[in-house]
Specification:
Elements (H helix, E strand, L loop, with lengths): L2 E7 L3 E6 L4 E6 L2 E4 L4 E4 L3 H18 L6 E4 L4 E5 L2 E2 L2 E8 L2 H7 L6 E11 L8 E2 L1 H6 L5 H23 L3 E12 L7 E4 L7 E5 L9 H4 L5 H11 L4
Antiparallel strand pairs: 1-2, 2-3, 3-7, 4-5, 6-7, 8-12, 9-10, 9-12, 10-11, 12-13, 12-14
Helix pairs in contact: 1-6
Bound molecules: uridine-5'-diphosphate.
The site of uridine-5'-diphosphate has 14 residues, from strand 9, helix 2, strand 12 and strand 14.
Length: about 240
């Protein structure tokens, strides 16, 4: 597998071409941003942690039957993935009230939801990822009805698996963001894409409620690197 030119560079990751047009390399950076890019910084070895955590979780999800873009981890910061066209809708799954949900609806952070809640946001930095409805997705053609149905169904299955994995190591999976992509296989087969890491999940210690995720960076709580490393340790990846 030969690494070729950079195809794309985002805030936390970059994508490189390979000699196989169907495969690309996802490179995880230490750069961190919050509040739609207003707050910038670096978290030492974040890229390594997020690559290891994402690789492990994608591997487990594939094993329980969730189709994903993940092929294999290549090294500390890189993984081989299938090239997809990203659906421009960010899917947020919530098990506990936190963040924008607490703020928008005036609920207490930490309130347990009686069932998982799925939300959709338009993937648009220019607009600050606004909350959207199913009707918006349909009327503006961001995904088909069949895709939305598959996304919701997969999200619930992913949630069941992830909640169990984290609960097993004493961590509450509060909420997280997923992205899905279409494979260039002639059928636009939908697969889970992007990353699942302390950058994209809220992870609280079950006993102490200590935040072990990017909120330590967003809210200047300190101990950011230690929190990311704790996730690696709990998952047995250090
Ligand atoms: N999230 C993300 N990327 C985004 C927006 C949200 O990974 O662009 C994650 C975030 O880390 C949290 C969950 O999605 O785990 C819900 O985020 P929320 O809507 O509460 O927004 P925030 O408080 O992060 O602005």
């Amino acid at each position: 597998m030969e690494k070729r030119e950079k195809l794309y560079e985002g805030k936390a990751k970059a994508i490189f071409a390979t000699d196989d047009p169907k495969l690309v390399i996802q490179y995880f950076k230490d750069d961190a941003t919050a509040f739609n890019g207003e707050k910038k910084g670096t978290i030492t070895d974040k890229g390594v942690v997020n690559n290891l955590v994402t690789s492990r979780l994608m591997g487990i999800l594939a094993a329980v039957g969730i189709p994903t873009h993940f092929v294999k981890r290549l090294n500390q910061r890189e993984q081989l993935i299938r090239k997809v066209e990203i659906v421009p809708v960010e899917v947020v799954i919530r098990n506990v009230v936190a963040g924008s949900l607490a703020k928008r609806l005036g609920r207490e952070e930490g309130e347990r939801l009686p069932r998982p809640v799925v939300e959709f946001y338009l993937k648009s930095d220019a607009l600050g990822d606004p909350l959207i409805t199913l009707d918006h997705i349909d009327v503006f053609g961001w995904a088909t009805d069949e895709e939305v149905e598959a996304i919701v169904e997969m999200s619930h299955r992913i949630n069941d698996a992830l909640v169990a994995i984290f609960a097993g190591v004493g961590i509450r999976l509060v909420d997280y963001k997923l992205e899905f992509g279409r494979l260039p296989d002639g059928h636009d087969t939908l697969v889970l894409a992007d990353e699942i890491s302390p950058d994209t999940c809220r992870l609280w210690d079950m006993e102490t409620n200590k935040k072990l995720d990017k909120d330590r960076f967003r809210r200047d709580l300190g101990g950011v690197e230690e929190a990311y490393h704790e996730i690696l340790h709990r998952l047995g990846l250090d």
